[in-house]
Amino acid sequence: MAKPGKKKKVLFVLEIIVLLLFIGGLYVYGQISSRLDKIEQPELKKEKIVVNQEAPKMTGYKTYVLFGIDTRGEGSQYSAQNSDTMIIVSVNNDTKEVRMVSVYRDTLLNVGDDTYTKANAAYALGGPEQAITMLNTNLDLDISDYATADFSALVEVVDDLGGLDIPLSYAEIEHMNNYCVETSKLTGKDYTPIEKPEPKPEDEEAIVGTYHLNGVQATSYCRIRYTASLDMGRTERQRRVLGMLFDKAKIAGLSSIFKIMDDVFPMVTTSLSKQDILGLIPTLIGYKFTDSTGFPQKFKFSNIKGSIIVPTDLENNVVELHKFLYDDQDYTPSSEVVARSNKILEIVGGESKLDDAAKTTTQDTDTTNANDTFVWSGDNTSGSTDNSGDYDYDNDYDNGGYDGGYDNGGGGDYDNSGDDGSYDNGGDDTGSDTGGGDYDGGDDTGGDETGGDDGFSDDSAADSGASSEEQ
């Protein structure tokens, strides 16, 4: 039988431990709370955000959207701030699973006011409110919260977490090195070019090795769009990098987390309150990324004036989106989505007028001073037409935009289990499906992760006429 004095000593020690843990928790809370003041939190005009009346209300889930924009200073031809990165994040609070869907920037959608153009223009036209509304009304979603950053923030996060080990193809090394020149100049961060293997491999899209990338290099990797899988590969790279960063942050020390907050939070704009963000901290610890994909899954290309991505059709793509994000097998598209689906195909002259491959361009020959706009507006009364249909199009659309020959083959998905989550982006599969390289939480040397598109926002002119140089 323990002596009374011994029991008191044990209780005293336990009380000290609990007190220290409490004080430590208060310290950490205070450090995080003070750093959250560095995030820009402008008032989101929620009355401007539209949700389709027939859109389903998903219980047990919270949906966010991450926007990546390109801010290169006043006077820059990129300063219109299109959201070339749009990642929908679905959080399942019951299973603790997180899924991501990238919306391809060149997807023809209704961006507001019955104007059909590239989806990335909505942010430049009306800020986060219009961009969120664009996603909600075209995809039957109910998003009300967002976060926005430019690619400088990604450079900082990667460096603060010690870099990333990423499998690269010969083509990716070449294009990444090219992008590093500008990324380094814009961010003031250094890098060392990766030496390309010799001799040049016959298959330039095949993985040649795993390389340790710093912030400039990893961000440049996320911006590549000149390999075979175009925007589908670019967005796949972005999701892969975000998944790897999420995993590294979960095991990082407090000093690293505090440094990320100090370096990155001033570059972030969000609708989330300080309490909202503090409430998300358990998500970082206890949740996991399980899968990711791109939208639309089934698409073709229209080369009316340059190259745009056309969902074939929007209605069925949205059905698949809801299955992926919410495991909703009973979802029926709203009348708004059905109407927009029909209008998109009407605008491009029907699916028979679409191409399986995008127009050819390269990083060296891409147009540099053309407006990157394709616009059809329901109230356009100028009466002009072209040979693609009885609709008016903006004549300033550039001739570039894509590396040739992509066959609608899909983006490989982020998948912790290591399964190859690639899909076929449908249509008539006339070439090779190049998108199968999944991030599996380890050394991903399999799969042909060859995709590529511009990074965290290169195509920065809205269809209001601002000039855009596609890098």
UniProtKB/TrEMBL annotation:
Acidic residues bias spans: 416-431, 440-461
Transmembrane segments: 12-30
Domain Cell envelope-related transcriptional attenuator positions: 82-250
Record-linked InterPro entries: LytR/CpsA/Psr_CW_biosynth, LytR_CpsA_psr
Biased amino acid composition, Gly residues: 401-413
Annotated Low complexity bias: 359-373, 462-471
Keywords from the UniProt entry: Membrane, Transmembrane, Transmembrane helix
Region spans: Disordered: 355-471
Keyword Methyltransferase: no
Assigned protein family: Belongs to the LytR/CpsA/Psr (LCP) family.
Protein name as catalogued: Biofilm regulatory protein A
